[in-house]
Amino acid sequence: MKLDRKEILKALETISVAGEGNNMVESGAVQNVMTFGDEVVVDLVLATPALHIKKRAEVDVMKVIHEKVYEKAKVKVNIKVEAPEKKPEIKGKAIPGIKNIVAVASGKGGVGKSTVTANIAVTLAKMGFKVGILDADIYGPSAPIMFDVEAERPLSVNVDGKSKMKPVENYGVKILSIGFFTKPNQAVVWRGPMAAKALNQMIFDAAWGELDFMLLDLPPGTGDIHLSIMQSLPITGAVIVSTPQNVALADAKKGVAMFQQESINVPVLGIVENMAYFTPDELPENKYYIFGQEGAKNLAEDLKVPFLGEIPLVQSLRESGDIGRPAALQTATPLEAAFEEITRNMVQETVNRNKQLPPTEAIKITTMAGCSAVNKK
Ligand SMILES: Nc1ncnc2c1ncn2[C@@H]1O[C@H](COP(=O)(O)OP(=O)(O)OP(=O)(O)O)[C@@H](O)[C@H]1O
User: Fold this and answer.
1) 113 CA distance to ligand 1 middle (Å)
2) Which of 59, 87, 119, 299 is the most exposed, having the fewest neighbouring CB atoms within 10 Å of its CB?
């Protein structure tokens, strides 16, 4: 008796591995079938090492071949266990009510990461999103100044019998900052795990309520502090801020690599080019590329990550930061338009990312519907 390989495959299409919906052939569990006269060898790959599932698969294969093809066939089943390829996952505990956590990072210090974070936050709030900023920049927390809430302190509120920190609020943005808990001028020399612990408290022991976006203003650099934060919080995606200058771009590249490395695996939503050019008020048509032209845009292309947009170097942006009223709040200005473009792109990238990856606790927003400002253009 010479067995026909096709008939064997047909028979195997009628059974499945325990716990899987598709039949063994369709699911890819059957890797190979070989026949030699009345002998047949079936190679199976299973995703689980569970003994009873292996045994059951072996018995089922033998039985179906004996029943449907040839009852005296000499069947040998080789089983290999291979864990399925790990999909990118969002790590950390679920945070009830917080739909997306977006980390804003820079690599190099002083490139305007906090300024961009503050302005994206107020723009999101203007678009109708519920927004919070968690200022995790332990070396120079600036959110309290940029939102003019330096003198305030988070109050304690009672939520379900537990005492929680109530974020300070201004311009429709809820804020918690390391700066609320350290004295001005106090150099905070924390190691990664300590900072991560403090941040964990500011997330899990705070009464944030419902948030569509929590923006996490990270310290500059790519040190162990970042690793600790990334690994302990369910970060939806990261935005990298850079100036077009080579030294900043080199660090921005390291920032992207940090998020993309296997142990962290946080999707990069895109790169923002800050201080893209200087335009003096008296010569609005003139653009001076002080730090180089389109450096961050080119970097985004090279690294195949989205480019979210550019912000010019403008005196009023610095001034508004210093007086505690983010520039994007001022309507009908080029800065407002620039931040709207970047924010819209960031939201779109968040939507794309949430559609592409399996839903996890941190991922909820899958459409921009209901938010007219986001779709405007
Ligand atoms: N596009 C811009 N035009 C003018 N000034 C800017 C611009 N972006 C940032 N600044 C100013 O540059 C300074 C540094 O900005 P910012 O504090 O946002 O940087 P950072 O990257 O967060 O710094 P750090 O490394 O300390 O966290 C601030 O005084 C800010 O007002």
Assistant:
1) 6
2) 87
